[in-house]
């Protein structure tokens, strides 16, 4: 999976001590985390006029937390293991807490946009083709139910977002968060390396990178062929979500040895992100459809919306297979 430019970069760092490669990367990410925290505090002040700056700062915090946590996982053997495990757990808690508010907002926007598009166009391809029997009646029913379905989704997801926002604020004011921030501040100046990190990078650093790569290739090879997948079986999304997480870990490990993200996997990573978003949006539509005592037209519109998002799941899988640069891994046994 290594391109010539990657191989050159790795040769240049091969004789450096492993700690001399890993340490500066972790310190850089810790610095980014602290800058994100400072921006978040500035934009959270009462005089701040909007939430965009707060959202961007929270995003920066999440990105840095994910990179630090991923590196602590991949390169645990080169670090103080107890310290790495504890900080990784706390960063996962923080990143997950901050991500929920953003996820609900993104999900609502996605579903409302899809509802708007569906209510003014033909139904998804899995349903009766335009011009076929019952199409006009189905379109009329969708038009009646779309507005109510959108209002229901907005109530449910806005409530969930508000609760997530409150949970994030509570987390950022907690002693647990302050302990995490203190640990990251210390990391910015001192990385607790194990004695093995003094060995050349070629001997001890590249092994974990290669293992992260092999786990990713194995997960992609194990993805079920399209012809065996049931489009509306959401339980079958799990291997794709796992591949997304392993791709992220691989990218972070690659950043450590290359210094920059590997652009060749950008398209595949984006496709897996879209897959996750569509899968979660479909689940939200299905959950809304189970709301007691909703009108049949509303339930119908939510059912069409669920089908539309499951089609988006399938489309994201196709894009992933098209953009994955290592075809042999996709079609493996």
Q: How would you describe the oligomerization state of the chains in this entry?
A: single chain
Give the tally of β-strands. Answer: 0
Structural class computed from helices and strand pairing: mainly alpha
Form type: globular
Alpha carbon gap, first and last residue: 19 Å
Compressed to H and E, one letter per element, the order equals HHHHHHHHHHHH
Give a quick account of the main beta sheet: strands, pairing sense, barrel closure: none
What is the rounded Rg?
Answer: 23 Å
Helix content: over 70%
Overall pLDDT confidence: 88
Q: Which residues sit in consecutive blocks of at least 5 with pLDDT less than 50?
A: 46-50, 121-133
Work out the strand percent: under 5%
**Tally of discrete structural domains:** 2
Question: Count of helical segments?
Answer: 12
């Amino acid at each position: 999976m290594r391109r010539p430019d990657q191989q050159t970069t790795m040769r240049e760092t091969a004789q450096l001590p492993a700690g001399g490669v890993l340490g500066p990367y972790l310190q850089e990410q810790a610095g980014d985390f602290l800058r994100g925290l400072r921006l978040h505090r500035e934009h959270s002040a009462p005089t701040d006029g909007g939430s965009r700056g707060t959202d961007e700062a929270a995003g920066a915090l999440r990105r840095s937390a994910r990179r630090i946590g991923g590196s602590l996982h991949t390169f645990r053997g080169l670090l103080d293991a107890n310290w790495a495990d504890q900080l990784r757990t706390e960063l996962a808690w923080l990143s997950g807490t901050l991500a929920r508010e953003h996820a609900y907002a993104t999900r609502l926007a996605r579903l409302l946009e899809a509802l708007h598009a569906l209510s003014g166009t033909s139904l998804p391809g899995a349903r009766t083709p335009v011009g076929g029997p019952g199409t006009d009646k189905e379109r009329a029913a969708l038009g009646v139910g779309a507005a109510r379905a959108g209002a229901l989704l907005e109530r449910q997801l806005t409530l969930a977002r508000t609760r997530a926002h409150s949970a994030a604020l509570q987390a950022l004011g907690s002693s647990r968060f302050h302990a995490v921030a203190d640990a990251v501040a210390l990391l910015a100046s001192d990385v607790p390396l194990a004695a093995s990190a003094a060995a050349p990078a070629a001997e001890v650093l590249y092994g974990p990178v290669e293992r992260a790569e092999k786990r990713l290739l194995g997960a992609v090879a194990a993805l079920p062929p399209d012809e065996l997948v049931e489009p509306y079986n959401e339980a079958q999304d799990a291997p794709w979500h796992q591949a997304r997480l392993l791709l992220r870990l691989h990218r972070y490990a690659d950043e450590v040895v290359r210094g920059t993200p590997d652009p060749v996997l950008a398209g595949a990573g984006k496709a897996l992100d879209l897959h996750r978003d569509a899968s979660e949006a479909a689940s939200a539509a299905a959950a809304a459809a189970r709301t007691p005592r909703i009108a049949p037209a509303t339930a119908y519109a939510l059912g069409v919306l669920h089908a539309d998002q499951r089609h988006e799941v399938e489309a994201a899988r196709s894009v992933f297979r098209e953009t994955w640069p290592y075809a042999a891994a996709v079609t493996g046994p």
